[in-house]
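FW: tagging you since you asked about this chain on Friday. Here's the raw sequence from the shared folder, copied in full. Didn't touch anything.
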Amino acid sequence: MRRCSWWEYQTNGREKKDGEGGISMQAFTAEMAGTLYQVLVTVGQTVSAGEDLYILESMKMEVPFSSPVAGRVATIHKNPGDFVNEGDPILTLEPLR
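HL: got it, structure written out here
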């Protein structure tokens, strides 16, 4: 099973900083081309660190991605069944403070 590490979380997405220099939003992007098999969260849902967010299907393998931090799902950019290229945004997470 594939888990997104904290380092990948920091470098894999597009960060939006708040006025105090902290990270206010984090976009999770596809690390590989494939089909978004399943989105396991909804907009507004609070997630725990380690909770699975979505599953990508690539080369007949289902690869889950989990949140490295607790947060709230702000936006879901893709729908299940959508093809994604590497770097496409999938969802945006607002870390809890």
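FW: Strands lie at 15-17, 23-29, 34-39, 46-47, 52-58, 61-66, 71-76, 83-84, 89-95.
HL: agreed, and The helical segments are 6-12.
FW: great, closing this out.
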